[in-house]
Amino acid sequence: MSSYVEVPQAVATAPAPAPRVPARDRYFDFLRALALFRVVLYHLMGWAWLPLAFPSMGVMFALAGNLMSRSLKRPALQVVRGRMRRLLPPMWLLGAVGITGMLAQGWGPGSEGHPAWWWGHLLFWVVPLSDPPYAAGLPGIHHVLGDNWGANLAEPLWYLRAYLWFVLLSPLFRAMLRRAAWPTVLAPVALCALLEFVDLGLPGRVDSALTDFATFGACWILGMAHQAGVLRKVPGYLVPSLAPIVMALGYAWAVHGGYSVTGSTELDSIPLAQALWSLGSVLLLLHISPSWAQWPAPLRRWDRVITLLNSRAVTVYLWHNLCILVAATVWDDLWSIHALAGAGKFLNSSWPVLAVTWFLVGLCVLCFGWVEDVAAKRAPRLFPV
């Protein structure tokens, strides 16, 4: 007997329901995409006011902490292992490309003064509990890659190191939030102040890791606290009243440290100011947290771009610095073309370099982004939009 069962036409042709995106997640996806765009823009343009306009790193850590807190409804060891599995393979691919290139240009065991140290430090390219080593001062590739490209390749890796430590400590943060929420949120800021005023004489690797933890730890823990409902217990008027004060304190300390929106001192070089400004900004952004049942009209046209940036956030962040260097190198070489001698104003502009940078970032997403799918145990896709 045939097993065929006729299905009514109305049911047979009904379209499959679209995947449902939680309303608040749309807002968080928008913030993450905006943060990534701002990071690329800042690293190319160098405008000192951009970290004030939108503190990307604080926002990215807060969103990651929020997601981590949501995931910790499952067993902690399983969650930590899953986060590490998603984080590390894209870095391993970057390391495979970067280390191969650095070795080809003569980098090796003698570079750090002692071969055993070099081999030991290479393990930080596997698990970045500290800064992975790189070859400083390498010559570039003519017409393609500028000098000192190894430093540009490794510069974004501090974020992965800080992210990994936050992931490992998140089960402890969660337990502390249940006992004393706001002291736990503010503890990294207190540590940042201690590091600002007291020289603890720590080794360089330890000091850099502890400074990054103190600078952005409050944002990560605040993201966890938001997911746990801590902000909902605060009177509605309190956050909009206190957050600007925290930001003002951060700005005042930044000015005290030599920062100005037109100067050469970056906000990132003043950790306590960065910590306070980021904490205040993240407080406001999480307090707003609109529930977008659908994208607001101005953002609907950007839906696919926002989705792509969120799906390939690690790839974009890891490769964007190298893309900027390649774009700037290629663009500078245009000055040698005689036919473009009269286009000095155009060649001096950084906006075309930004366009070339994003084109190269797109190529990196095509070539390397699939690793994020494999790490997440999904079917690899070229453009997950």
Q: What features would you describe in this structure?
A:
This protein is mainly alpha-helical and 385 residues long. The chain has a domain at 296-385. It is 65% helix and 0% strand. The chain is built from 18 helices and no strands. It has helices at residues 9-12, 23-45, 50-53, 56-71, 76-104, 115-121, 149-154, 157-179, 181-197, 204-227, 238-256, 271-288, 297-300, 303-311, 313-332, 344-348, 351-368, 370-375. Helix 11 (238-256) runs antiparallel to helix 12. It is globular, with a radius of gyration of 23 Å. The model is unreliable at 1-20 (pLDDT under 50).
- Integer-rounded radius of gyration: 23 Å
> What is the number of E strands?
0
Largest sheet: none
Number of helices: 18
Q: H/E element string?
A: HHHHHHHHHHHHHHHHHH
What quaternary form is this? Answer: single chain
**Proportion of strand residues:** under 5%
